[in-house]
Amino acid sequence: MPSPEKFDSTTPFCLDTLEFHQWLEYVLIARLRELIALEAELPAAMMTHTYAQEKYRGQWGKYRKLIGILQELDALITLESH
Questions:
Q1: Is residue 64 part of a domain?
Q2: Which of 8, 22, 49, 53 holds its CA 20 to 30 A away from the CA of 63?
């Protein structure tokens, strides 16, 4: 778990303070779990897979499964909000 000050970033995906996998686990997934538990509205749309594609450019073979799962999650979130 990253230190609390790492979460104070104002940049998208906490690029300046967290690794992408840390952001996925400790920010995105934690927030989605919280919203679901509260039966709150989910984001209107997500595009996390496009960032993952850029982040892991040249390593797609290694991260193909993760990118695919993020693409499915993005599609589900976007579909649910419409």
A1: yes
A2: 8
Tokens of 29: 């997934």
Helix (DSSP H) and strand (DSSP E) numbers for the chain: 4, 0
pLDDT digits (tens, 9 = 90+) for 18-38: 999 999 999 999 999 999 999
Does the pTM exceed 0.70? yes
What dihedral angle (degrees, nearest 10) is formed by the CA atoms of 73, 30, 24, 11?
A: 110
User: What's the burial of 25, exposed, middle or buried (CB within 10 Å: 0-12/13-18/19+)?
Assistant: middle
Q: Which domain holds residue 28?
A: 19-80
Burial class (CB in 10 A: 0-12, 13-18, 19+), 26: middle
Rounded distance between C-alpha atoms, residue 67 and residue 65, angstroms: 5
